[in-house]
Write a structure and sequence with these properties.
Layout: H1 2-12, H2 22-25, E1 34-37, E2 46-51, E3 57-62, E4 66-71, E5 77-82, E6 92-98, E7 104-110, E8 124-130, E9 136-143, E10 147-152, E11 158-163, E12 166-171, E13 177-181, E14 187-192, E15 197-202, E16 206-212, E17 217-224, E18 231-236, E19 242-247, E20 253-257, E21 263-265, E22 278-281, E23 288-291, E24 295-298, E25 301-309, E26 317-323, E27 327-332, E28 338-342, E29 347-350, E30 356-360, E31 375-376, E32 382-386, E33 394-398, E34 403-405, E35 424-425, E36 434-435, E37 438-439, E38 450-455, E39 461-466, E40 469-474, E41 479-484, E42 489-494, E43 500-505, E44 510-514, E45 520-526, E46 533-536, E47 542-544, E48 552-556, E49 565-568, H3 573-576, H4 579-588, H5 591-602, E50 618-623, E51 628-630, E52 634-642, E53 651-656, E54 659-661, E55 664-670, E56 674-682, E57 688-696, E58 699-700, E59 704-710, E60 728-735, H6 749-761, E61 770-777, H7 783-796, E62 802-808, E63 811-813, E64 819-821, H8 831-834, E65 836-837, H9 838-846, E66 851-857, H10 871-877, E67 885-888, E68 898-899, E69 904-905, H11 906-918, ...
Parallel strand pairs: 51-59, 60-61, 60-62, 62-66, 66-67
Antiparallel strand pairs: 1-48, 2-3, 3-4, 4-5, 6-7, 7-8, 8-9, 10-11, 11-12, 12-13, 14-15, 15-16, 16-17, 18-19, 19-20, 20-21, 22-23, 23-25, 24-25, 25-26, 27-28, 28-29, 29-30, 31-32, 32-33, 33-34, 35-36, 36-37, 38-39, 39-40, 40-41, 42-43, 43-44, 44-45, 45-46, 46-47, 48-49, 50-52, 52-56, 53-54, ...
Helix pairs in contact: 4-5, 6-11, 7-9, 11-12
Length: 968
C-alpha cells in the first residue's frame, strides 16, 4: 500500500516541541504560476472519499492536489476544490470529510508550507470549503504533522483529525481545539458513532475508543487490535453496537464489540491473499464491505474487488470486481448503494445488487510493466508506448510533427538494461539497486524505490527511474544529476544519439530531458481515449490535438486563506499556442533557444511577462445554488467577477443550453479588482445549464456553470417556449474543386459541399420549419463571396435557429500556425489578402446566438500546398466563449481520403449517410450530434482502413441535441 509507507515517513519528521511557535512563523504558499495536468478527473491516487447524510454528493480527495465534488445521481462533476499548493508533495490531499448536511467540505493532507527558516517548522492546515460555491471558508492551523483522516461529528459542529501525532478535534465554528490526544502515534482513521463515541486506529497497532460530548474528549478503552498489527480503518455500525476493522498486514477483517473493543468474530476472508484495508457498513448495518489490495488477475488485466458479506458480516461472502488497482476507500449511500475510490485512479458507485451504476475510469495511461515496450527512435523524436497495461494497444508519436504514425515504424529501440562492465541488479521494484554488487545511492529515508532502468549509449552510464526521482549515474556509479519526478517513473529510455533521456510516469505523461544535465524540455500527455493529446514546454508553450488544449493549465495560489485559481492553457492561446516552438526544441535541446529561433523564423515576438501579469477574469457565482429548482423563466444570478486592476472586465457572455443570450445586468458593488454583478437571464421551460464567461483585455475567463431544474408548468407543445418548436436552419456550404490556378485543383470537394447541402435540405418541414442554404462551389466561392456568406449567417441566425457551415477544399497555415481556408481565387503567397482567415470564421461563430455547427475538410491527400493543421481553428471555435460544435475530417498528420467509387470524400460520405438515417442508433428517428459523431468516426475508419480518423468537439455547456430526423 503506497500511502502507508509515506505515512511512516511523515511521522518521523514531525517536531512536537515547535507547535507553540507555528502561527508566528507560518510561511506563505508560493506565488509563481504552476503548470498542472487537469483532465476533469483525478490524475493520481484517490486517497479518500466522503458523502453527506442524504447521499447527494460524493467528494474525492487525491494526491493530484485537488478534491472534486460529484453529483451522486448521475456522476457529473460539479466543482473542483483547489487548496494552496507548492512543489513536491505540498498540497497532496490524504483526507476529506463532508458535513452531515452536505454544506461544508474539509480537506487535509500534506498541506503545509515551510517557514523558510534554518530550523524548519511545519504548520499543517485543514481547509474548510463551502461545497455549493467552492469558496474557501476558513483554515484550521497548528497541526505539527500530516493529516491522514477527517470526520465530522454527527451534529456537524466538530471536526476530528487523525494525524501524525494522534487525534485532535476542532470546533468548526471558530477553529478552537475542543479535544486532543497527542499520544505520539500516527492515527490512520477516525470515525464517529451516532451517540458521540469515536474510534481511531494507529501505527503502533492500538485501537482507541473515546467519548466526546462537544467539549470534552474522554478515552474509554485502549487495546491492541485483535487479529492484526497494523489496523488501518475502523467503522461503527449505524446502531453503534459493532466496529469493523481492516488491516494492512493481514487479510483478516474483524468485527468488534463497540463497548469495549473486544473481539466478536472474523468474517470469511478465504481466498484473499492481500489486504483489506478499508471497511464500510451499509446504512442499516445488515451488510459489511471491505476492500484494499485484494485482486484477481485475468490475463493481462487486474481487477481489484470489494468483498461483501450479508448478515452483518457473518453471512455469505461475495466478491465484486470494480477497479484496476488498490481500492483506497469505501462509503455507503442510501438504498444499499456503495461508492469506492481507487489508486488507478478511478471511482464509482455500485447498486444493491453489486452492479456498477456509475464508473469513472482512469484518465491516465497505466505505464506499469511497459518497460521493455517503451521504445525510441535513434534521435529520440519518436516514442512508442502502450495505451494499456503491459504496453498493450501500442502507438507511435512523432514529436517534431506532433502526430501519430504507423506502429510498425522501423528503428524503434527499447531500453537496454545491460552493457559491458555495467551490471545493474535489484533495480526492478527495489529499495536497494546495485551496480556490480555495490549499493547505489538513493534516498532510503524517504523510501525511494527503483522502478526502471536504461543504459546510456556507449556504456557511458545509466539512468534509474524511481518513485521520486530520475537519476543518471556514470559507469562508476557516481550520480551526475537527479531530477524530481512528477510520479513513479515506470519506464525510461535513452536516445541512441546520446541527446535525450525519456521517461513515462504514473501521471500519464512522457517527458524529455537533456542527457547532459537532466533539465526537462518537453512533456507529452496522451489521453486514454486515443484522440486527445497535448505537448508542452516547462514554460507553457504548447501544441494540442482538437479538444486537447484544456488538459493542462496554470494554477495560481492566492495566499493561505483563499482557494487557488486555475486557468486552462486555452485562456492564453494567443501567447502560448506555439507548435513552431516545440518543433525547435529537438533542434536546440533548449526551450529558451527554441523560442528565439521560432520567433526569428515567424517574425513574431513572444510574451515576455509572467502568466500572472496577463490574467483573464475569474467568475464566481454567489447565488443561486447549483441544482436549484425554478418555476419562473426570469432568473437573477449574483456573480463576482475578479480581474486584475489593470485589466477590468469589458464584456460578459451568457449562454443558456449553449445559446448566446442578451442579459440585463447592473453593478451592485464595484471594487478595484472585484465587480459584483446581478444578471437576469431568460430560461426555457425546462432544465437549463447556464454558462457565464467574462472578458478583459487579456482574454476570456474559464466558463462557470450553473445548472437549474425546471419546476414550473411545462411549455405547451408547438409553442415558442416548447423545445419541439421548429427552428430555422441556415446552411453555408463551401466547396472548391476547381481553382482559378488549376495547379491546386481537387477531385470531389465541390460535390461534397453540394451533397451536404442537399442532405440538410431534406430536413425542411421536418426538424426545421425552414432550411435556407447558401451554396458556394468552385468559381462562386471567391473570398468576397465566402465573407459575404459569413455575414449572411451572422445577420440571419437568431437564438431560436441553427447555423451550420461546411467547408471543403484546400487549407493552409501561415508562419504563425494560423489557419486559412483557400477560396477559388486564392494566391497562397498573399494569404492575408486572398485567404479566408481563422479569425474571419471565429468572429462569425462567436456572435451567433443560436446553436452552431462547423464541418471542415481541408486536409486532402495529394495536397500540393503541403500539410495543413486545423487543430488551432477547431479548438478556438469549440472553446466555451465561441460555442461551436466542430466536426473535422481528420486528426493532425492525417490526410483526407476521397475515392470516385464512393462519390464523395470519406468524411462527407459518412456525414451524409449519418444525416440520412444511418446515425439513428436508438431507432427513435432522431440524429443527435453525439450519434452523428459516433457513426462518422466508425464509418470513416472503415472506409479508409484506419488511415483517417475524424474528430468531433462539443463545447462544455452544450448538451447533446438533435441535428436531423428520419422519416416525416
Amino acid at each position: 500500500m503506497r500511502n502507508f509507507l509515506r505515512c511512516k515517513f511523515l511521522i518521523t519528521i514531525a517536531s512536537v516541541a515547535l507547535v507553540s511557535s507555528l502561527s508566528a512563523h507560518a510561511a506563505e504558499p508560493p506565488t509563481e504560476p504552476m503548470l498542472r495536468i487537469d483532465t476533469g478527473e483525478h490524475t493520481a491516487i484517490i486517497n479518500r472519499i466522503a458523502t453527506d447524510n442524504a447521499g447527494d454528493w460524493l467528494i474525492t480527495a487525491s494526491s493530484d492536489k485537488t478534491a472534486r465534488v460529484w453529483n451522486v445521481l448521475d456522476g457529473r462533476l460539479v466543482a473542483t476544490l483547489r487548496v494552496p499548493t507548492g512543489s513536491g508533495s505540498e498540497g497532496e490531499l490524504n483526507a476529506v470529510a463532508i458535513s452531515p448536511d452536505g454544506n461544508t467540505v474539509a480537506l487535509g493532507g500534506w498541506t503545509q508550507f515551510n517557514n523558510g527558516l534554518k530550523q524548519t517548522i511545519y504548520d499543517y492546515n485543514i481547509y474548510l470549503f463551502d461545497r455549493a460555491s467552492g469558496r474557501l471558508l476558513r483554515r484550521l492551523t497548528g497541526l505539527p504533522n500530516a493529516i491522514l483522516h477527517l470526520a465530522f461529528s454527527p451534529d456537524g459542529r466538530s471536526l476530528a483529525v487523525a494525524y501524525g501525532d494522534g487525534l485532535r478535534i476542532f470546533s468548526v465554528a471558530d477553529g478552537q481545539i475542543v479535544g486532543e490526544d497527542r499520544n505520539g502515534s500516527a492515527s490512520f482513521s477516525v470515525h464517529f458513532s451516532n451517540d458521540g463515541r469515536l474510534v481511531t486506529t494507529s501505527v503502533n497497532g492500538l485501537l482507541r475508543l473515546y467519548r466526546f460530548n462537544g467539549g470534552n474528549l474522554t478515552l474509554l478503552v485502549k487495546r491492541a487490535a485483535p487479529g492484526g498489527k497494523r489496523p488501518i480503518a475502523a467503522r461503527f455500525t449505524s446502531d453503534g453496537r459493532h466496529i469493523a476493522v481492516g488491516f494492512d498486514d493481514t487479510s483478516a477483517v474483524n468485527v468488534l464489540n463497540a463497548n469495549d473493543l473486544s473481539f466478536g468474530f472474523a468474517p470469511n476472508t478465504t481466498g484473499i491473499k492481500n489486504h483489506l484495508t478499508t471497511v464500510a457498513w451499509s446504512r442499516d448495518g445488515s451488510t459489511l464491505y471491505a476492500a484494499g489490495s485484494a485482486h484477481v488477475d485475468s490475463g493481462d488485466k487486474r481487477q481489484s474487488y470489494i468483498r461483501r458479506w450479508s448478515q452483518g458480516g457473518a453471512g455469505v461472502a461475495l466478491d465484486l470486481p470494480v477497479a484496476g488497482n488498490t481500492i483506497e476507500d469505501l462509503v455507503t449511500l442510501p438504498e444499499g448503494r456503495l461508492a469506492f475510490g481507487s489508486a488507478d485512479p478511478s471511482w464509482g458507485i455500485v447498486d444493491v445488487n453489486g452492479e456498477r451504476q456509475i464508473f469513472h475510469a482512469p484518465t491516465t495511461i497505466d505505464f506499469r510493466e511497459s518497460r521493455s515496450s517503451f521504445a525510441l527512435s535513434p534521435d529520440g523524436t519518436r516514442v512508442r508506448f502502450g495505451y494499456e497495461l503491459h504496453g498493450e494497444s501500442p502507438a507511435v508519436f512523432e514529436s517534431q510533427n506532433r502526430s501519430f504514425i504507423a506502429i510498425d515504424t522501423p528503428s524503434m529501440i527499447p531500453p537496454q538494461i545491460s552493457a559491458p562492465s555495467l551490471v545493474v541488479t535489484d533495480w526492478k521494484n527495489s529499495y536497494a539497486p546495485k551496480l556490480n554488487g555495490t549499493l547505489l545511492k538513493i534516498d532510503s529515508y524517504t523510501y525511494e524505490k527503483s522502478l526502471s532502468l536504461a543504459m546510456l549509449p556507449g556504456s557511458d552510464g545509466f539512468v534509474l527511474g524511481t518513485n521520486q526521482n530520475l537519476r543518471l549515474f556514470d559507469r562508476r556509479g557516481r550520480q551526475r544529476w537527479e531530477w524530481q519526478a512528477p510520479g513513479e517513473a515506470w519506464a525510461v529510455n535513452t536516445s541512441q544519439d546520446g541527446r535525450w533521456v525519456v521517461a513515462a510516469y504514473d501521471d500519464g505523461t512522457i517527458r524529455w530531458y537533456r542527457t547532459s544535465d537532466g533539465v526537462e524540455q518537453l512533456a507529452f500527455y496522451p489521453h486514454p481515449d486515443k484522440k486527445r493529446w497535448i505537448m508542452w514546454t516547462p514554460s507553457g508553450y504548447y501544441d494540442a490535438s482538437p479538444g486537447g488544449e484544456d488538459l493542462i493549465g496554470w494554477q495560481l495560489n492566492r495566499g493561505k486563506d483563499q482557494a487557488a485559481d486555475f486557468f486552462p492553457v486555452s485562456r492564453f492561446r494567443d501567447h502560448f499556442y506555439r507548435p513552431d516552438v516545440l518543433a525547435k526544441v529537438f533542434e536546440t535541446r533548449d526551450q529558451t533557444e527554441a523560442v528565439k529561433l521560432a520567433d526569428q523564423e515567424s517574425g513574431r515576438r513572444s510574451i515576455t511577462r509572467s502568466i500572472s501579469q496577463v490574467l483573464p477574469p475569474v467568475v464566481e457565482i454567489v447565488s443561486p445554488q447549483n441544482g436549484i429548482g425554478v418555476s419562473n423563466t426570469n432568473l437573477t444570478i449574483k456573480a463576482v467577477i475578479r480581474t486584475p486592476a489593470d485589466a477590468p472586465a469589458t464584456n460578459l457572455r451568457v449562454r443558456v443550453n449553449g445559446l448566446l443570450q442578451t442579459t440585463n445586468s447592473h453593478n451592485s458593488q464595484v471594487k478595484s479588482e472585484a465587480n459584483t454583478q446581478e444578471i437576469t437571464v431568460n430560461l426555457p421551460q425546462n432544465d437549463a445549464e447556464i454558462q457565464m464567461i467574462a472578458q478583459n483585455k487579456n482574454g476570456f475567463s474559464s466558463p462557470v456553470t450553473l445548472r437549474v431544474t425546471w419546476a414550473g408548468k411545462k411549455a405547451a407543445p408547438g409553442s415558442a417556449e416548447d423545445n419541439n418548436f421548429k427552428p430555422k436552419l441556415y446552411v453555408l456550404a463551401v466547396g472548391v474543386s476547381k481553382y482559378k490556378n488549376p495547379y491546386y485543383n481537387l477531385g470531389l470537394a465541390a460535390k461534397d459541399a453540394t451533397d451536404f447541402a442537399a442532405a440538410l435540405m431534406k430536413q425542411k418541414g421536418k426538424l426545421y420549419g425552414d432550411v435556407v442554404v447558401k451554396l458556394l462551389t468552385d468559381d462562386k466561392a471567391t473570398k468576397d463571396e465566402v465573407l459575404d456568406g459569413l455575414e449572411w449567417l451572422k445577420s440571419s441566425v437568431t437564438a431560436r435557429d441553427v447555423g451550420i457551415m461546411f467547408v471543403a477544399g484546400h487549407g493552409m497555415n501561415d508562419k504563425l500556425g494560423n489557419y486559412y481556408f483557400l477560396p477559388y481565387n486564392v494566391n497562397p503567397e498573399q494569404l492575408v489578402r486572398t485567404g479566408v482567415s481563422q479569425n474571419d470564421i471565429k468572429l462569425t461563430f462567436a456572435n451567433l446566438p443560436g446553436k452552431t455547427v462547423f464541418f471542415v475538410d481541408t486536409c486532402y491527400a495529394g495536397n500540393v500546398l503541403g500539410a495543413v493543421v486545423t487543430s488551432g481553428l477547431i479548438n478556438e471555435l469549440a472553446s466555451a466563449e465561441n460555442g461551436a460544435v466542430v466536426f473535422a475530417a481528420s486528426t493532425a498528420g492525417q490526410l483526407s481520403q476521397e475515392n470516385a467509387s464512393w462519390g464523395n470524400g470519406a468524411f462527407t460520405k459518412s456525414v451524409v449517410e449519418g444525416l440520412n438515417g444511418m446515425a439513428d442508433f436508438r431507432k427513435n428517428g432522431m440524429i443527435t450530434a453525439k450519434g452523428l459523431d459516433y457513426y462518422v468516426d466508425d464509418r470513416v475508419k472503415s472506409l479508409t482502413k484506419g488511415l483517417q480518423t475524424p474528430v468531433s468537439i462539443t463545447p462544455g455547456g452544450i448538451t447533446d441535441f438533435t441535428i436531423a430526423v428520419v422519416g416525416k
